[in-house]
Amino acid sequence: MLYDYEKKEVGSEEKSILFKVINGVDLSAQIGSYLKLRDKDQIGDTSAMSRLLGLKLLSEKKGLILRGMRKYQLTSAGLFYVLSETRTYPPSLLKKYGNDPILLALLYQYFEVDTIASSTARFYSLITQYLRQCCRITLNWLEDTQNSNEEHKNKLMNHLKFELELNAKLLAFRIMTMYSDSNILSLSPKSESDDSDVAYYDLETNMKEILAKDNKFIELLHKTNADFKNGFKEFTNSN
What we know:
about 5% strand, two-stranded antiparallel sheet
């Protein structure tokens, strides 16, 4: 999906439109109003939308177009841009584009959709950091493979696969460590009222229970545990 992807230079007007698409703002009425009234305060210059379409970060949704009003969605390239360049976006974005090949490869082979939809702030922060790092790894691979022949690309593809799988195992290790009972307690924000401490502990304990019931995540934990045990054994027995 990303063979031809190049890092995008996106201006403030384009970012504003992307932000609205990310947050589910219906642009169709705004664009229709713009075309009728030339009201640039609604969405900005339509050339910004044209640039996003030209960069293939957005595409028009298929379906009825009424009075020039169009609906837009992120392309795979647009989703990749958001994941790599945007630090904050709602969990609903990851659910809405759950069938995109990028999220299927990086996220939903390791987690159920409902697990991500139930994210606490702490857990979701780990997920967004993980996805951003995956995108940076992939961008580095794309830069390394520019002007390469297919044979060289395939060799580097194996390295990319290894790095992405390793990043997923590092995520599993972080989650496993963070969600030990002692760390849930120690990382809970302290306040004058014990009630908020208890509420925070209950919230994260519930997140831990959700993860424990996620078969995809448990499978990732088993793989991570096996690799760690094998590596630990080799290092400790090396002398």
